[in-house]
Amino acid sequence: MSVASPVVPESHTIEVLDHGFVRLDEAMASDLSVVNAARVSFARRKEEMDDSDHGLIRFLLRQSHGTPFEHNAFRFHIRAPIFIAREWFRHRIGSFNEFSMRYAKATDEFYVPDAEDVRTQVGKPGAYSFEQVEPEVAETTREELRAVYETAYAAYERLVEMGVARELARAVMPVGSYTEFYWTVNARSLMNFVSLRAAETAQREIRRYADACERFLAEEMPVTYQAFVDAGRVAP
Amino acid sequence: MSVASPVVPESHTIEVLDHGFVRLDEAMASDLSVVNAARVSFARRKEEMDDSDHGLIRFLLRQSHGTPFEHNAFRFHIRAPIFIAREWFRHRIGSFNEFSMRYAKATDEFYVPDAEDVRTQVGKPGAYSFEQVEPEVAETTREELRAVYETAYAAYERLVEMGVARELARAVMPVGSYTEFYWTVNARSLMNFVSLRAAETAQREIRRYADACERFLAEEMPVTYQAFVDAGRVAP
Amino acid sequence: MSVASPVVPESHTIEVLDHGFVRLDEAMASDLSVVNAARVSFARRKEEMDDSDHGLIRFLLRQSHGTPFEHNAFRFHIRAPIFIAREWFRHRIGSFNEFSMRYAKATDEFYVPDAEDVRTQVGKPGAYSFEQVEPEVAETTREELRAVYETAYAAYERLVEMGVARELARAVMPVGSYTEFYWTVNARSLMNFVSLRAAETAQREIRRYADACERFLAEEMPVTYQAFVDAGRVAP
Amino acid sequence: MSVASPVVPESHTIEVLDHGFVRLDEAMASDLSVVNAARVSFARRKEEMDDSDHGLIRFLLRQSHGTPFEHNAFRFHIRAPIFIAREWFRHRIGSFNEFSMRYAKATDEFYVPDAEDVRTQVGKPGAYSFEQVEPEVAETTREELRAVYETAYAAYERLVEMGVARELARAVMPVGSYTEFYWTVNARSLMNFVSLRAAETAQREIRRYADACERFLAEEMPVTYQAFVDAGRVAP
Q1: What is the pLDDT of residues B174-222, one digit of tens each?
Q2: pLDDT attached to residue A33
Q3: Do C48 and B97 touch (CB under 8 A)?
Q4: Distance between D4 CA and the closest CA of chain B, angstroms
Q5: What pTM did the predictor assign?
Q6: In the Cβ-directed half-sphere of A137, how many Cα atoms lie within 13 Å?
Q7: Please, which residues 98-137 of chain A have a Cβ atom closer than 8 Å to chain B?
Q8: Where are the domains of chain B?
Q9: Range D10-102+176-230 has CATH code 3.30.1360.170
Q10: Which chains have 3+ CB pairs within 8 A of C?
Q11: Residue A51, class by beta-carbon neighbours within 10 Å (0-12 exposed, 13-18 middle, 19+ buried)?
């Protein structure tokens, strides 16, 4: 699993949380593809971007002309806790394949937040803010999580050893356990993901993942990304 | 939550597993809508089905003309373990809203299979078959599950009481815990769901849910349903 | 084709342009469904709307929480010129079945604008404005259109009579000729359609259709509609 | 418009009909991506295909496991008559941007079939077969088409010269006129397109386009393509 992909150097991996990562497996993405998709309206095509194209991309984003941003693809390989994956898979415009606890044995990796990420919520649903807890509370929390994870995984292993079907034994696995998946998505849907999941209102853990995805977007499609930021991070 | 819906009588609930259900909240579905959607190709429309329309529906299904089966909607209210919901949410043609452990406190209901549903897997991935385990193994399994659920939920409650944000405390919750959600879907996508999830290769627990959905399909669109069965349960 | 539907009275038809209409064939839509889809986050359900729910719907719209607006369906029956239908079918979240010139003989109905709708464009692509032309230009335009339509349809009829396959003979049919189709769509996608197609920048002819769709939305989901208008007609 | 793309040599263009083409603008596609997407179920990844992977791809196709075929992208640039484009745009899983007769002046290129493609239909809707017509009928048909095209285009030009808005003047344009568009699609959706549009029941003209797309699929993903053919050209 740590084998380097033939296309993208291993450096295309951003580590997230204690055991997770976002790896860009492959991309077919360029600002030029946006420009050419838009200019087909006029039956025009270009070999290279020029300055007027920067303006065109900004115009398209501001005016919510979304389709020209769909003619590209990012294939990500992601490792994240199940509770993060569950939010991720709500994004229907894109493709997923995931690790299966029906077919394979669950891993023993679980999410334990750093002490400074243990937090309390203040305010009302839809408008929470979060504050760091006292160090002892943070430490107790980390211990409680670890203890449940160990208990659950030990039971899981006993069940599997007894011959219980993995698809059933998995019922004890906590949503803090890590899963992994491939996600292929175009820039329009990716911007939508980033606008919702790298936002103030998103859960801190998925924000870290969305931030990582955002860096790959910025790298592959810098003009589009800048226009997205300038437009207040609202997806077209 | 046990309040009767104004549109559909409470009898439109099918109980599934130990704490779950599929409830048809509302439907706009009829075989006539399939016929009229197909006949718009010829600019024809009918007030009532006749025998030739049964043949038309069978023809459409057999020939994989899927779009006429999309002009309808089923809104389901479902209660199921998280590991079932995770498979369910992979179906992208449809709409979901789900209970949130970020906003609300997790319930203390968890899936414990009946003794005869505790099983072992035989064979290779993609071609498993399942056999019932010995009674003692079944009982031990049920006890192991209950024990993990209790440990996890007790830790969850302690964390919430200590003020830890619910979105973080939920990390300990096992995927055997129950969630609930609304699912709105058209008959074409519902047939696809049933063909995959009420199949031999599907996990037994989701099959029970798919069977329940199937009964509602049969009730609302009997001619379509019969044609689907006759076509070998392959969705158009 | 003029047969009344069993579900919706014929009064549910809004005439548009010279030979077109938008007819609401059937709907499963209510503001309550939005509220209940949103409240499942907290495992709550209601029988009837109250004032707090109006606030909830406004909140959801303003915050771009779109999914609760998807648990409903509008089935429209529409008659429109092909050049309008072509813009309509770009909306991918929804279901279409259309009249087929492969299977049936083309109708002889074509769009001729009223004199006051004959217009000239001023300004640059993406930022056109339109001004009414002189009465003589308007009349000449209407005559030119009618003349081409007649020439084309006469040729079409000759080809069909000679035995040429309809799928080939249709090549002469102008995009001003009328087609008809069913469109089933949820309120979220319908609001997106209205926000783009009932807008200043949309072509006048499709705006008339979008206005008609909008009236049905307002009738079926008045609280949602009011919130949509108050949010500046931006779809969630 | 005849400028070579920086990524794909001009040889990646297949001419179709009298003025059309399918050009593969860029692709991110490989059989290996299918294998890796499938093997993430077991948390395994490979650098290169081996023989067992051929079997895996065949298995996935036969069993209708479709999602592993979605982690790739083909960006096509296409030029086709409007009546073909209309069928094409019914395929909702994919992205389109098209030439606009609102923004740009219509071209004067129109589809005139070769004599041997002028045909008559025999049989009933849904089960037509086609036979070549007599040479004189073929020639008359070609003349009729050309005559309507000329009449329509001359009227179009007069209207535009008179200052009538292009979006209105286009109403006279026949559906035999050429348009062009970008289409970005994954292999699963592309196989679905090919299975429906390169089929016996499809219109001859779109079959030629589907055949061209199929050649690019075969070139980029040979193992997948062979498995698709062996499975009877049924998309997973």
Answers
A1: 999 999 999 999 999 999 999 999 999 999 999 999 999 999 999 999 9
A2: 97
A3: no
A4: 38
A5: 0.95
A6: 19
A7: 101-104, 110-111, 113, 117-121, 125-126, 128, 130, 133, 137
A8: 10-102+176-230, 115-172
A9: yes
A10: A, B, D
A11: exposed
